[in-house]
Design goal:
It is a single-pass type II membrane protein. This protein has 786 residues and is of the alpha/beta class. It folds into four domains: 82 residues, no CATH class; 290 residues, Zn peptidases (Aminopeptidase), CATH 3.40.630.10; 198 residues, Glucose Oxidase, domain 1, CATH 3.50.30; 143 residues, Transferrin receptor-like, dimerisation domain (Transcription Elongation Factor S-II, Chain A, Up-down Bundle). 41% of the residues lie in helices and 17% in strands. The chain has 25 helices and 23 strands. The strands form six sheets. Strands 4-15-17-16-18-23-19-22 form an eight-stranded mixed beta sheet, with helices on both faces. Strands 6-5-14-7 form a four-stranded antiparallel beta sheet, with no helix packed on it. Helix 1 packs parallel to helix 3 and helix 13 crosses helix 18. The protein starts with a helix and ends in a 10-residue tail after the last helix.
Length: 786
């Protein structure tokens, strides 16, 4: 029996393989990975075999220790190999599933239309690749050539040239790989210079007898001016801002019954100038470009002294005869008109005409800072003339006309959330050649549409839909865009993620400004750090702005009334932005004149029109990529907490004056706190949620998309007060009106109206509280303790 045992333990022929697989303990139990064997060894074996057996066991034990060390090393190596393989497979799998785009564009894949199987030719494209693709396909030469083509002739709304351009743009969209192209038509009432009678200006005597006619260009006019005649002395009102009229009242200048002479600019539109003059009791307004604001130069780069600047004077947007309603041809409304239509005539005049009139004025000297640079003019306020009894008579004969408008649309459908839209748009019409007013925006719009269409052919699959729109009747106050908003307002706040206006995007090449809803402000930083400044090669827009004192204060600006983006936010509740390159401290002088040509713009830019237009296209394209591919929309819902906090601070400073009148700001504080908490809670919930959960992602995005809409006051009429946004809008319900009224508590307590203030405070408080409640989500998440 000894030999079989020896053979088994020593690995002799016939037993070696099994011996390496197990160790026998207790005299014959062998554990094999394949089987368990038991062998019996007799206790009475020969003595001669014991020594050899002991030696063999010792050798076997030593060998087992070596084998165990080898096995441990092998197992460690195999474990490392398995871990590395699993990690790499998991990483690739995670990257394939991840849709969230971080601050630096955490490489986000695009939805594959073939579904999760990632069919051949599909697969994953990351954000870095999309950025490279965008830059690769954008073409600066196409932007320049389109500007020249669009601005080759005057093309106002309703003209044969305007209709031909609309057809050309529609055909351009149809040639691209778009999912849909269509036309949205409206009938709107527009105002044009009368063909039968020219607008006129005279110097008259005390009896109204016409002494001298001052000739005006028949093409110069203010759309939506009141018609008829006005006569009176002339008062120089600087920029016709509210503070300018306040100053004139303090100085005791007679405003009632006079004609205002106002400068272009000052940060207020023509409509606001006319409104302020009307409120002051004046009977008419003349508006001129002062050389101090708009350079005059007989050469190509300056404005001639005999050129006037035209602009509409409707204090609003859209068709003023269907305020708050869409002007579709199947709708019939009783006679009505916008409260923003002026009741006094307005007319643009040249610097030469203004110089002729202002040089004859007598009266009090102008306040400091009001002096312009008109030749031969000593700055006095009027209203009297050096010849006693002399006055000015103005006559405006513009006529209203119903016109068919055509907005041209093209779209690329989103593959995951096609019912959410990122919209890009530009005004198409112009009273003159309109290189800046219409050509630049149209060129960038068409180039972005071509670029995204080309990207689509190369593997680009947007998560959300892209809309490209050419708007009609922009010169009359964004009529085409506003009528479309009015027609689809009930659905847009659930579908429109953001709007980018491309109007007047290039007026220089020095400084970038972003007139924007605060919700979109954070998007700008990611874009400007990736785009080179068109005037400083090798430097990003962000790095250059930071060297000049902080990029946010320099670049981010509030929306303004005549912006193509304004009505989207203030009327429609859609976050909107308008980008613009311009010259620091210098105005492009040719907008809204017959001199706004591609040649002059190119000369001003020293041949860099295509480069600057390309920079705008890249900026908009990069922000659109973020919005169309991030699973969670990258909009800053906390931004409005700051505005409410400023009001709370102001109320706190005036707490003593308020308490005397029995007024308490406590509910404003409460509403501000509720909104701030709701916004932060939503942000935290998003951070702690699996964003691959489509249901939760959809719920969060719905709440984020509606934030702007929450701030449209539900307590005022969209017909009487179309700009209902309490922070960006216009009217008694707005935060600006509330704070102006509040300031009277110290500056002029007698003018403070307690009943009016209570109403303003209540409207703002409940709008803010409503926004907080809606942002909280479901009704059971709203925390309003007693």
């Amino acid at each position: 029996m000894a030999d079989p045992v020896r053979k088994l333990l020593t690995g002799s022929p016939g037993g070696g393989a099994q011996a390496d697989e197990g160790v026998e303990e207790g005299g014959g139990v062998k554990c094999s990975k394949n089987r368990l064997e038991m062998k019996l060894v007799q206790s009475g074996s020969e003595n001669s075999s014991e020594a050899g057996l002991t030696n063999d066991i010792t050798a076997l034990v030593l060998r087992r220790q070596v084998d165990r060390r080898k096995a441990a090393v092998y197992l460690t190596l195999i474990g490392l190999l398995i871990f590395t393989t699993a990690f790499l497979l998991g990483y690739v799998s995670f990257r394939g599933m991840c849709h969230f785009c971080g601050e630096e564009g955490e490489l986000v894949p695009v939805e594959d239309p073939a579904g999760p199987d990632h069919s051949a030719g599909g697969g994953v494209i990351y954000m870095g690749e999309l950025r490279d693709m965008l830059k690769k396909y954008l073409r600066e030469e196409k932007i320049e050539s389109t500007v020249r083509r669009v601005s080759r002739a005057t093309h106002p709304t309703g003209s044969s040239e305007g209709n031909a351009l609309a057809t050309e743009i529609l055909q351009s969209f149809q040639k691209l790989q778009m999912d849909h192209t269509w036309t949205d038509s409206h009938y709107a009432t527009l105002q044009y210079p009368s063909r039968a009678q020219r607008n006129a200006l005279w110097l008259v005597d005390a009896d109204g007898t016409e002494l001298e006619e001052i000739l005006l260009d028949s093409a110069d006019y203010c759309a939506y001016s009141a018609t008829g005649t006005a006569m009176g002395g002339v008062v120089y009102v600087n920029y016709a801002r509210k503070e300018d009229f306040d100053k004139l009242r303090v100085l005791g200048v007679a405003l009632n019954g006079s004609v205002a002479m106002a400068r272009v600019g000052g940060g207020v539109s023509f409509a606001e100038k006319v409104w302020h003059a009307q409120e002051a009791g004046m009977v008419g307004v003349l508006i001129y470009p002062d050389p101090a604001d708009i350079p005059q130069d007989p050469r190509r780069l300056g404005l001639h002294g005999n050129v006037a600047i035209s602009e509409h004077v409707h204090l609003g947007s859209g068709d003023p005869f269907t305020p708050g309603f869409p002007s579709f041809n199947h709708t019939q409304f009783p006679p009505t008109q916008s409260s923003g239509l002026p009741l006094i005539p307005a007319q643009p005049v040249s610097a030469n005409v203004a110089s002729k009139l202002l040089s004859q004025l007598v009266g009090m000297s102008c306040p400091q800072g009001w002096q312009g640079r008109l030749p031969y003019v000593r700055c006095v306020l009027g209203p009297g003339f050096s010849v006693e009894g002399r006055q000015v008579k103005m006559a405006v004969y513009n006529s209203m006309s119903p016109v068919l408008l055509n907005n041209i649309f093209a779209s690329i459908e989103g593959k995951a959330e096609p019912d959410q839209y990122i919209i890009m748009g530009a005004q198409r019409d112009a009273w003159g050649p309109g290189a800046v007013k219409a050509g630049v925006g149209t060129a960038i719009l068409l180039e972005l549409a071509r670029t995204f269409s080309t990207m689509l052919q190369n593997g680009f699959y947007p998560r959300r839909s892209l809309l490209f729109v050419s708007w009609d009747a922009g010169e009359f106050g964004n009529v085409g865009a506003t009528e479309w908003l009015e027609g689809y307002l009930s659905m847009l706040h659930l579908k429109a993620v953001a709007y980018f206006s491309l109007d007047q995007a290039v007026m220089g090449d020095d400084t970038l400004s972003a007139y924007t809803s605060p919700l979109l402000a954070d998007l700008i930083e990611g874009a400007i750090k990736q785009v080179d400044h068109p005037k400083h090669t090798g430097q990003s827009i962000l790095s250059l702005a930071e060297t000049q004192g902080g990029w946010r204060n320099k670049i981010v600006k509030p929306l303004y009334l005549n912006s193509g983006a304004y009505s989207f936010t203030s009327f429609g509740g859609v976050p909107a932005m308008e980008l613009r390159f311009h010259e620091e401290g210098r105005v492009y002088p040719f907008v809204n004149t017959q001199m706004d040509s591609a040649e002059r713009l190119q000369e001003l830019l020293q041949g860099r029109l295509g480069v600057v237009g390309l920079a705008v296209g890249e900026l908009v394209g990069l922000m659109v990529l973020r919005l169309t591919h991030d699973l969670i929309l990258p909009l800053d819902v906390t931004c409005y907490s700051t505005a409410a906090l400023r009001l709370s601070s102001q109320l706190n400073q005036l707490s003593a004056e308020l308490q005397v009148r029995g007024l308490s700001p406590q509910w404003v504080y409460s509403a501000r706190g509720d909104y701030s908490r709701a916004a932060k809670t939503l942000q935290e919930a998003i951070k702690n949620t699996d964003i691959q959960d489509e249901r939760m992602t959809r719920l969060y995005n719905t709440r984020i998309m509606r934030v702007e809409y929450y701030f449209l006051s539900q307590y005022v009429s969209a017909v009487e007060t179309p700009f209902r946004h309490v922070l960006h809008g216009r009217g008694e319900h707005t935060l600006s009106a509330l704070t102006e009224h509040l300031a009277l508590l110290r500056s002029d307590p007698q003018l403070f109206n307690e009943a009016r203030f209570r109403r303003q405070l209540a409207l703002f408080t409940w709008t803010l509280q409503g926004a907080a409640n809606a942002l909280s989500g479901d009704v059971w998440n709203i925390d309003n303790p007693f």
